[in-house]
Amino acid sequence: MQITEIIQKRKRVSTTDLATETFCSISTLRRDLIYLERQGLIRRERGEVILNTFNTMEQNILLREKQHLDEKKSLAKIARDFIGPGMCIYLDSSSTVFQLCEYIKNIDNLIVVTNSLNVANTLAANGNDTIRTFITSGEIQHNSCSVLNSEFENPIINYFNIDLAFCSASGIDQSSIYESNMNQALSKKTIMDKSKETILLIDKSKFFKTSFFKMNTLTEYKVIISDALPANPISQTVKANDIEWISSNYLH
C-alpha cells in the first residue's frame, strides 16, 4: 500500500508504523514525508503523521487520483454517452474528469480543450489521430497539474465554441458548488460561462462539503452525474429545478 493511501485511510499514523507498513527505511520515509508536508497534505507532530483535512487547500493530484477510483470511472463511463464525433468539449483538471480520457480516446474528430496537463498528455499519447487537443495558457499549478489563468486573459478560449464542459468540484450542498482553490473556481467558471452546457461529475464523498469559494449555484447545472442519489436537502433543489441527476448505482 502506498504512503498516501495509508495516511488517507488512517488520518493519523505513527512514523514507525508507517515505515513498517510500507517496508521503507526511516530515512527514505522521511524524504517522502517532507515532500508531502511541503505540499500541504500532511503535518508531522511528535513522531506521528497527520492528514490535513481542512478544505481550503487543494489536495495534490497524486493523492486525489487514488481516492474513490472505481466511483470516478463509473461517472466517466456515463459521461461518455453525452459525447459524439465532431464535438468540442472542455475537460477540467480534476482527477474525476481525467477518467474520461479512456472512454473518449477513440471518438473521431473530437476537439478537446483542457487546463489539465494530465489530460493533454494522455490524449496526445493515446488518442486517435483525429482528436485535436488544445491546452489553455497560464501558470502551471504544481499540486494539481492545472494551468490557471485567473490573473490575465486567456484568449485561446474565445476561439472555441464549446458544446459541453465536464467539470468536477470539491463539494456540493443544496445551494452551491464549491472549490477548495479560488483560482480553480475562477478558471472553471470562465469556461462554463462560455460553454453551451456544463455537466458536473461528483461522487458522494463530496456531498455537503463546503469551502470558502463558491464556483456556481446548483441551479446552473442541467445534468449532474454521481455514484449516489442526492440526499435531502440537495434532492429538493434538484427536483424543484428539474435538474437531471444520474446515479451510476441506480442504472439498470
From TrEMBL:
Keywords (A to Z) from UniProt: Repressor, Transcription, Transcription regulation
Stretches assigned to the HTH deoR-type domain: 1-51
Pfam families: DeoRC, HTH_DeoR
Gene3D superfamilies: 3.40.50.1360
GO molecular function, one term: DNA-binding transcription factor activity
PANTHER family per UniProt: GLYCEROL-3-PHOSPHATE REGULON REPRESSOR (PTHR30363:SF4), HTH-TYPE TRANSCRIPTIONAL REGULATOR SRLR-RELATED (PTHR30363)
Biological function: Repressor of the lactose catabolism operon. Galactose-6-phosphate is the inducer.
Protein name: Lactose phosphotransferase system repressor
Higher taxonomy: Bacteria, Bacillati, Bacillota, Bacilli, Lactobacillales
